[in-house]
């Protein structure tokens, strides 16, 4: 079940996570791409052509209006990713690249 928000294209899923209506794209994922790469709404539209500019602008507005909470979510995701990376250890590909002096 989805809950509506005051943002036209943004709904909250069962876990109260803001997603772009009619998609599986979480607002935090789009905001992360915006922040990491400095992409404008138009560039985000180029990178995610299934999203409309209206959806993208609504997601960015939601992010900026809820920046603190979403940045905590981004930080939590980064910590989780780093924990998994450390637990996984060095992959065979990384070992080969290092042995060749490529990284």
Structure description:
- The chain has 103 residues and is mainly alpha-helical.
- The protein has one domain.
- It is 59% helix and 8% strand.
- It has a three-stranded antiparallel sheet.
- A hairpin with a 5-residue loop joins strand 1 (3-4) and strand 2 (10-12).
- Helix 2 packs across helix 3.
- The longest helix has 22 residues, at 67-88.
- The chain starts with a strand and ends with a helix.
- The model has no long low-confidence stretch (mean pLDDT 94).
Concise structural overview:
The protein contains 5 helices and 3 strands.
Largest sheet: 3 strands, antiparallel
Radius of gyration: 17 Å
**What's the rounded overall pLDDT mean?**
94
The portion of residues forming beta strands comes to 5-15%
Cα distance spanning the termini:
46 Å
| Class based on secondary structure composition and strand pairing | mainly alpha
**Element-level helix/strand string:** EEEHHHHH
Low-confidence runs of at least 5 consecutive residues: none
* Total beta strand runs: 3
Question: What's the number of domains?
Answer: 1
- For the largest beta sheet, what order do the strands appear in spatially? 1-2-3
Number of helices: 5
What is the approximate shape? Answer: elongated
Percent helix: 55-70%
Task: Identify the notable features of this structure and list them briefly.
103 residues; mainly alpha; 3-stranded antiparallel sheet; 5 helices; 3 strands; elongated
Q: How is the topology of this model organized?
A:
Elements: E1 3-4, E2 10-12, E3 18-20, H1 27-37, H2 41-47, H3 53-65, H4 67-88, H5 92-99
Antiparallel strand pairs: 1-2, 2-3
Helix pairs in contact: 1-3, 2-3
